[in-house]
Amino acid sequence: MQSIPGGTSEATPIFSGIVALADQVAGHRLGLINPALYLLGALSEHGDSHTGIVDITAGNNSFAGVTGYAAAPGYDLASGWGTVDAAKFVPALARLG
Predict the structure, then answer these.
(1) Cα 58 from Cα 56, distance rounded (Å)
(2) How far apart are CA 95 and CA 90, in angstroms?
(3) Alpha helices in 1-97 (DSSP H)
(4) Rounded Cα gap, residues 93 and 20, in angstroms
(5) If pLDDT is split at 50, 70 and 90, which confidence band does 97 have?
(6) CB 70 within 8 A of CB 57
(7) Which residues lie below 8 Å from residue 57, measured CB to CB, with a gap of 6+?
(8) Does the structure show a pLDDT above 90 at 10?
(9) CB within 8 A of 29, min separation 6: which ones?
(10) Given pLDDT bands bounded at 50, 70 and 90, which one contains residue 4?
(11) Given 18, 44, 63, 74, which residue has the most CB atoms within 10 angstroms?
(12) pLDDT reported for residue 54
């Protein structure tokens, strides 16, 4: 079976690098970022365009004949709050850390 690149195997190290950039911008380790992520997600859902969170509103995560979840505005089971625009997300996360 051939490995398909993507998913958490690709996203996790990329996101770790983005958090490391936020550490550098903040000038210290941010530590547990979950509270900041939830705050940024809530701000994003209320229209704040400076969070760096980009809502995914179309598509789904179905794969290989297995029906997944549909993306929709706001939080959804297909993409959570969506993806990040690192240029906006890094300083927003650094400010909250």
Answers:
(1) 6
(2) 9
(3) 7-26, 34-45, 86-96
(4) 11
(5) confident
(6) no
(7) 71, 72, 73
(8) no
(9) 23
(10) low
(11) 44
(12) 95
**Long-range contacts made by residues 85-90, C-beta under 8 angstroms, separation at least 24?**
85/52, 85/53, 85/54, 86/18, 86/21, 86/52, 87/52, 88/49, 88/50, 88/51, 88/52, 89/18, 89/22, 89/40, 89/51, 89/52, 89/53, 90/18, 90/21, 90/22, 90/25, 90/52
d(CA 45, CA 51): 10
Tokens 């625009």 label which residue? 85
pLDDT in tens, 37-74: 999 999 999 999 999 999 999 999 999 999 999 999 98
Rounded to whole angstroms, how far apart are CA atoms 44 and 74? 8
